[in-house]
Amino acid sequence: MKAFTQLTGTAAPLLEKGKPMSNVDTDMIIPKQFLKTTERTGLSKGLFHELKTRSDGSPNPDFVLNRPEYAKASILIAGENFGCGSSREHAPWALLDQGITCVIAPSFADIFHNNCYKNGILPVRLPVDACQKLAEQAGGSNHVFMVDLASQTVTAPDGEVFEFDVDAGRKANLMAGLDEIGTSMMAEGDIDAFEARRRVSMPWLETSA
């Protein structure tokens, strides 16, 4: 997993009637017809498919990620309850495949929130009014934001700084590029030593070849 320390990049505002879009569920992020693969690449083609595609299959020019200035966005700004719905891990995979490594929203569905950390995406919780301010700035002429995990801050184009909270353990793992398996492997020596002691003290647990 790629480490997340500091990100300077374009922020795309996902809006509905001028406000950050709320209740964006995982089926909206990556519809069910794109879940037939276990590969983590190529999923960006299905990301927000119903929003970015017209009924005739042509691109919707009004959708934010179809606009040239947001085509390489690495930050997404959305509304409350982002990532609700099913537990599909393809949702963060699709965001990553698009190049989005940070999502800013007032709140996240628990499973999606956990899946973000497992895949190297930083989910930033900020108040509703702060997300509205950030979305408005992202819609202006300067779309470049800076997210610093060490200081737990988001710096907007106008220089205003927003602080966010993050669990200390998750912060450390994300900055080190460690998922749950990687964290377990940090204790590989202790695991090997335990298994060696167990083979001596409880040999009946060993199966014969």
Polypeptide structure, described:
The protein has 209 residues and is an alpha/beta fold. It has a single domain, classed as Aconitase, domain 4, CATH 3.20.19.10. It has 8 helices and 9 strands. It has helices at 26-29, 49-52, 90-98, 110-118, 128-138, 168-176, 180-185, 188-201; strands at 6-13, 15-16, 19-20, 75-77, 102-105, 122-125, 144-148, 153-155, 161-163. A 7-stranded mixed beta sheet has the order 6-5-4-1-7-8-9. Strands 2-3 form a two-stranded antiparallel ribbon. A hairpin with a 2-residue loop joins strand 2 and strand 3 (19-20). The chain is globular.
Overview in brief:
The chain contains 8 helices and 9 strands. It has 209 residues and is an alpha/beta fold. The strands form 2 sheets. The chain has a 7-stranded mixed β-sheet with strand order 6-5-4-1-7-8-9.
Largest sheet: 7 strands, mixed
The CATH architecture name reads Alpha-Beta Barrel
- SS class: alpha/beta
Q: Total number of helical segments?
A: 8
Low-confidence stretches: none
Topology, number of strands:
9
The CATH class is identified as Alpha Beta
Strand fraction? 15-25%
Report the radius of gyration as a whole number of Å: 20 Å
Taken together, the total number of domains comes to 1
The share of residues in helices is 25-40%
CATH topology value? Aconitase, domain 4
- The CATH homologous superfamily name equals Aconitase, domain 4
Q: What is the arithmetic mean of pLDDT?
A: 92
- From the N-terminal CA to the C-terminal CA, the straight-line distance is 35 Å
Query: What overall form do the CA principal axes indicate?
Result: globular
Q: Main sheet: which strands, in order across?
A: 6-5-4-1-7-8-9
Q: SSE order, as H and E? A: EEEHHEHEHEHEEEHHH
